[in-house]
């Protein structure tokens, strides 16, 4: 491709709208442009990278035995009512009416559509298992679209679905997909972890894994062991519970302290000059909109609401408002404590093993000291109700330490089980002629999100540094001066010869100053650069790898021999 | 691919919903399924063919120098208001609101989005010309979705746009696209014509061509010369006007005839026992919702409303209602005639050269005979206001005859000129620093429609007969009995060897009766079939081309040698 003809508008400045490194580079290097909040155009370079990602994903899906199909984006609202998600999905689901007033949604995901299809076409165990996938534009009306392609409202996704006769079959389908996802991550040269995850709103009975790409702007936090391969989303991660300090009942007697206007753990540590791990924090939650409970964790720990929710089996959980707190504890927020409460108390195991601590007195402006949980807190609900923290012991190997890192969720795979097949009535006849629910799995990867995630991990101070497998072009030829006949002739010759070998080459044939050309080349990030300058008359050119400092002086023949035609 | 694992549900009966041959075959052979009216799922076989079509289109676009990008489906309504199409597009435009109540449309086409992009990024003649294309799902809320993929509400389309500095540049861009479209049609083995066409609602000043694939169910009618390469949509086609019978004024005097309850041309020919070409038909139209006119054509001809509209320069044209007819003519519908009218009269040239004819008398139950147009009809508006008919002389070569055929419009290319660039403000600075409007072209081809159009031309009484370039698989291997060890082993061996050469093979490894397998194979339509039956023990197999009767007995080695690996 001749750069003079390419729609490749680079920007000198970081655009004001950019809120992450990948967003800024993709805008500046002319890969994407925004049309509306969270809605992007892929310019030619962006489209090329996207197609390479599509191809990698497609190859790995095919290798995993999944078949490509294409479901519609427009789906009758009726189908979503049947699954119960029409209302549950909330404002993220984009809705519209057709000219006859019939209600439709724009698919944010396709469990309903595929289950309904399979229900109509698969009726016997002889047609199972079957796995299908599609690469398709999805729509989700995010409340806060941001980070460019990372959290968009229209985005490209690969979603796959497996259908099995039994759970053992699902395990096989799931592990094929798990491996395919690992292959995709590795082919994209991503530093990532496959982490044990919560199944969230998609639901399902059999567990799930997220594929998290490490990045500072990531909205997910992962706890990963530095010794074994344990890794889990913090929503789900646990640590090995040390029982080295068994609870010691007795000790000093309870004592009330006046703590005027001291509401928070931070204020309390300052006021009393004690470390937060000696404090006992009591939070009042409301379950399913009606049942108040007290969750008690150490002052240096954070409540994990999903663990609480899973423990009690609630559909929803939210922090109580001040009125409810006062009703439950007899005091305004800031003075709740686990003693004498009439509501259920969920006690984190790390509080239960405290020798003693300081807790709220359930009375305005008072706390209690010498609280001995084993002696003073009356509850039968002791468990793991908190987030793990950096440096805790791995629950799997009991040897390594957990390290917390931020990351971007690019993929999520689920063992759905029979959630959708039951609701939509997708069943099959087994060998004995008995009707059975089909066992499902679903597997999603954000292809446009992957594009941004790769850039988050592959840039330097001058621009993008593409992994070879994803670069929009493989070679970038830059004649320093296109007015120099020897330079441009040599450049054209090399361009033709490489192109004839099937190699993707971009030729910067623009009449621009060398500084502008080199800056643009750095921004764009093509891995192999050939600079044709004054030494062209001796047949010598410069070869540079993007991201490396070394400049090699080589002959044209050498340059040609470095690039083998692409395989296949 | 193993057929036992493929999601390929074939149907024995023609489904009731099928309203065309391609629709019926694509449903029966398991290529597509309907999710809602005009909204289809592509099953694995359908997806494969669609991808082959995409690839052909992509290659031809690249060869024509266009760059692939991807614009969003979600577009702010504001953009459509700017171009004036938000209201003009009518009910076909799908509209929705986001969670904040902002209005969006789902792109049925992308002139607005691309013009707005180019406006922001291209400002100098040095960046022109540039041509871009995308392959994308489009949405149009058709009033009457039908014929399966032919007239759908969600469909796959390739749309391309060219941007030039001047009209000469547009001519070059346009002819590159014209040639690319011809290449696509030929690679799909379609019997088609590129026809001169009306620009319709997309508009534009510079003319357009439709690519029409001949098919009996087609909604377009093409007039094509049997001698030269003239071809035009009937909306635009004209014929050579013969002036062999100059108008002869005078003759017999006008005579009023009683024609009770005779309203139509058909009734009149029966009642008077005269051929329709001796009748003069007068239709009352209303232009732009207010101006009534009379259009006068021969009894055997049909008014061409677009020609009338173009002649008078009206935005809209519709047949007058009975009240307006009575106001304009003084008689109820059925008795209008061109004599004595107070409204403008548009006289078709073939009426103007009639020696005499029979016309309505503008009086209930009366007609006039011996009407001599040259003598009796007062108008200065004589022109071509009718559709051409089969067998007329070609207006181009004046030698051949025009033949009318029905066809499916699969592509349409337009010289838009400055219609959109003016409205949306896309301009550039020319060599002299002067601001100029960018000159645009747009070029669309329906990829999913192409799929159906190919099937309309490639089937026999047993199923689809794919052109080799589009078949979902190249070779179909059918062991007659999978329980026969020799047969299945030979089949597996051949399957592996062909697959290893990169050849797309489908192996029918199902435990089904031979009749079912052969019926399914005929339905699916893979071009090369290898049947492995009783002679397998001697290493002999049967080779059949789909659509041909001959059965060849060949050895396994011969079978292998017939299929070279794919190029590239």
From TrEMBL, chains A, B:
Domain of life: Bacteria
EC number(s) from the headed UniProt entry: 6.1.1.15
UniProt catalytic activity: tRNA(Pro) + L-proline + ATP = L-prolyl-tRNA(Pro) + AMP + diphosphate
Top-level enzyme category: ligase
Compartment(s) of residence: Cytoplasm
InterPro entries: aa-tRNA-synt_IIb, aa-tRNA-synth_II, aa-tRNA-synth_II/BPL/LPL, Anticodon-bd, Anticodon-bd_dom_sf, Pro-tRNA-ligase_IIa, Pro-tRNA-synth_IIa_bac-type, Pro-tRNA-Synthase_IIa_type1
Major localization class: cytoplasm
MF (Gene Ontology): aminoacyl-tRNA deacylase activity; ATP binding; catalytic activity, acting on a protein; proline-tRNA ligase activity; transferase activity
UniProt keywords, alphabetically: Aminoacyl-tRNA synthetase, ATP-binding, Cytoplasm, Ligase, Nucleotide-binding, Protein biosynthesis
CDD domains documented for this protein: ProRS-INS, ProRS_anticodon_short, ProRS_core_prok
SUPFAM superfamilies xref list: Class II aaRS ABD-related, Class II aaRS and biotin synthetases, YbaK/ProRS associated domain
The family this protein is said to belong to: Belongs to the class-II aminoacyl-tRNA synthetase family. ProS type 1 subfamily.
Quaternary state and interactors: Homodimer.
Name recorded for this polypeptide: Proline--tRNA ligase
Species of provenance: Paenibacillus oralis
Organism lineage string: Bacteria, Bacillati, Bacillota, Bacilli, Bacillales
């Amino acid at each position: 491709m001749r750069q003079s003809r390419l729609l490749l508008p680079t920007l000198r400045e970081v655009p004001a709208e950019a809120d992450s490194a990948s967003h800024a580079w993709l805008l500046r290097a002319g890969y994407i442009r925004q049309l509306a909040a969270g809605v992007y155009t892929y310019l030619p370079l962006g489209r090329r990278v996207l197609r390479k990602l599509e191809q990698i994903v497609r190859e790995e899906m095919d290798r995993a035995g999944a078949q490509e199909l294409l479901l519609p984006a427009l789906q009758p609202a009726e189908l979503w009512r049947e699954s119960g998600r029409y209302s549950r999905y909330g404002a993220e689901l984009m809705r519209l009416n057709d000219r006859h007033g019939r209600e439709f949604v724009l698919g944010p995901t396709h469990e309903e559509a595929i289950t309904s299809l399979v229900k109509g076409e698969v009726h016997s165990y002889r047609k199972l298992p079957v796995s299908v996938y599609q690469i398709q534009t999805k729509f989700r009306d995010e409340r806060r679209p941001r980070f460019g392609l990372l959290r968009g409202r229209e985005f490209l996704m690969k979603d796959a679905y497996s259908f099995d006769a039994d759970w053992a079959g699902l395990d096989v389908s799931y592990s094929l997909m798990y491996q395919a996802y690992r292959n995709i991550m590795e082919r994209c040269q991503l530093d990532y972890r496959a982490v044990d995850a919560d199944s969230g709103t998609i639901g399902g009975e059999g567990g799930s894994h997220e594929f998290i790409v490490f990045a500072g702007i990531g909205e997910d936090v992962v706890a990963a062991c530095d010794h074994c391969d344990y890794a889990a989303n913090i929503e789900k991660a646990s640590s090995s519970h040390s029982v080295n300090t068994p609870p010691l009942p007795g000790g000093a007697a309870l004592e009330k302290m006046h703590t005027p206007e001291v509401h928070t753990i931070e204020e309390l540590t300052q006021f009393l000059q004690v470390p937060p791990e000696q404090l006992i924090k009591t939070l009042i939650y409301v379950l399913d909109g009606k049942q108040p409970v007290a969750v008690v964790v150490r002052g240096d720990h954070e409540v994990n609401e999903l663990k609480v929710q899973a423990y009690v089996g609630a559909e929803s959980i939210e922090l109580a408002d001040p009125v409810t707190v006062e009703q439950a504890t007899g005091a305004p927020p800031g003075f709740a404590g686990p003693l004498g409460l009439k509501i259920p108390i969920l006690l984190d195991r790390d509080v239960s093993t405290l020798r003693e601590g300081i807790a709220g007195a359930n009375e305005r402006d008072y706390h209690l000291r010498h609280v001995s949980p084993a002696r003073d807190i009356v509850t039968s609900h002791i468990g793991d109700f908190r987030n793990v923290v950096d440096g805790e012991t791995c629950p799997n190997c009991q040897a390594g330490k957990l390290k917390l890192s931020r990351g971007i969720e690019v993929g999520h795979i689920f063992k759905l089980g029979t959630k959708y097949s039951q609701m939509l009535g997708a069943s099959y006849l087994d060998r004995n002629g008995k009707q059975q629910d089909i066992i499902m799995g679903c597997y999603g990867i954000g292809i446009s999100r992957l594009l941004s995630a790769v850039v988050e991990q592959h840039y330097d101070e001058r621009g993008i540094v593409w992994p070879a497998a994803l670069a929009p072009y493989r070679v970038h030829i830059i004649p320093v001066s296109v007015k120099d006949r020897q330079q441009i002739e040599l450049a054209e010759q090399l361009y033709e010869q490489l192109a004839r070998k099937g190699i993707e080459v971009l030729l910067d044939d623009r009449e621009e100053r060398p500084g502008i050309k080199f800056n643009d080349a750095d921004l764009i990030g093509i891995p192999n650069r050939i600079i044709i300058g004054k030494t062209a008359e001796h047949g010598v050119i410069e070869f540079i790898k993007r991201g490396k400092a070394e400049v090699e002086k080589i002959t044209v023949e050498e340059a040609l021999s470095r690039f083998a035609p692409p395989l296949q």
